[in-house]
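To: structure desk
From: M.T.
Subject: fold request, one chain
Message: Could you run this one when you get a chance? Sequence is below, nothing fancy, just the single chain.
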Amino acid sequence: MRAAIAQAAALTSRLRHGLAAIHRAELVPHAPPLGAVEQALRAAISTAERLHDGLTRAVERYSAASRDANGLFDALAGVGGALLGTQLRMGALFGGPALVLGALAGIAGGEALTGRKLDPAALARFLEQHPQLTGNPTFVAAVRGVADGMDEGMLTAAGVPPVIAVALGATGRTGMATSADALMAIGPRLGLLEESPVDVQRVDRQRVDTAPSGATQRLERVPEGDQVRIERYTAPGSPDRFVVYVGPTETFDPRPEGEPWDMASNVGGVGGEDVASIRATELAMRDAGITDASQVQLVGFSQGGMVAARIAADGDWNAVGLQTFGAPSGNVVLPDGVQGMAVRNREDFIPALAGPQTDHHLLQVERTVYADPSTMPTDQAAPGHQRVAYAATAQAIDAARSEDVRAQSRALDDFAGDYARRPGSTITASLYHAVRRDGSGG
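Reply: Done. Structure tokens follow.
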């Protein structure tokens, strides 16, 4: 729509130049009469101006309607969460504390209800068997609503009157952080979602020939297995620049194991807590030579995008660029001046786990991957969140005609490319692997 407005403005400008040219021509002696042409141009200018004004009003009305719809959706989610919390509290009062404890344990994995150890593969199997469900944009919206209403639900379950819980949610005094804090407080009592110290080791360092160009190449450099990759760009006479790539979740097991990129980091990170994956990334950054003055660009996929966004929002680092793919980071408020974009597939419910999009400093890019639902893979869990789906979206970004998208892509490219093109410059890539200390919570 913005492109259409720009085209209408450009057309109006060209028509006015043509009218001015006619006036100049009429000043030339013996020039033929151009009155009919002038009338036609004036009519065309009037039409173009009406088109421009109409498109502008349409965008304003769409934006207002979108804000109103999002506000209504948030309000309904809050009311629904408050009602659910009330029902949960009623169960506690009349059914005994064991009922609530059993329900919480069931939500966490079912161990307290079944007496069996949690089987994370069961969730993966369910997602694999129901890709049309998890990849449906309606399901994504439902997940966002559930995430948005969790804080009201937990407050009313704790005894806060529903009206007050909804009012607190509406004022922004509660939110995903409230819900995540509650889960992180309850989880360790069930042997789940426990935090621990982390150790980080550099496992590889090598020279690189070129800087990434485009979203596709940036996504390709996001690691897996070894969770963090840091590229150091040096150029004679200039301070070093760094690009930090952060990988996705490595395990969905909520029990404390050796992997920092786990469910504890997912839940706590969405809530804004200082989780293991964020601490490990920052340890790697310090080892790579990044200081609070160093200019840093961050790129992350899935949990890695959430980690990247949290670090970019942290005042301890000089983050100037950010690109995330499928990240649950919509509730992270970024400072002014961070260039880049947050990329989401409409079939991906993972970003919805952070609730509604609250930050608007970063360019928000959404794309429908499977316009024809019949083409959605049936052998993948959450197909809209798969790396191959985001690779296709990254390619679409690189081919985009939107000036907003192209401007942000250029800014991300130039951050590293500017140094890489200078004589005498070097690029060094370091790969880091992190583990939870002693392989357990603490």
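Reply (cont.): The beta strands are 198-207, 228-235, 238-246, 295-301, 318-325, 339-345, 363-367, 426-436. Let me know if you need anything else for the meeting.
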